[in-house]
Amino acid sequence: MPNTWSRIFPGQAWQVAEARHFVAALLEGEAAGLVDDAVLVVGELAANAVRHSRSGWYRGWFLVIVGFTDDFVRIQVVDQGSDSEPMVRSVNAPLEQSGRGLMLVSAYAKDWGVKDRPAGGRCVWAELARVGV
Alpha-carbon distance 51 to 72, whole Å? Predict the structure, then answer.
């Protein structure tokens, strides 16, 4: 199997589910917990790309990249950038329905981060530990 797989998705909300299916298919045969965590992480990152970046604009797109090493799976979501920086937000009210995406990513990932891309986009990445591989 190649070490890295990628797929570009139209920047539409319903494509977030397609990104989750893409990652789940790539992780077939991995530990169930890793698959669940990876699907959650890519879902949050892709939803953020569509909701909070230019990827959600007309003719927008986002790119999902999944890389494998012996120790971890690295998930990257490249979006078309925005004027605000992605950050973990504090949730002040328990009934708020949004704002927890990067908090969840940071809880499930071994490490995660954000890097700006030279062409104006942004990449948010997360590494998930592979156990028993």
Answer: 28
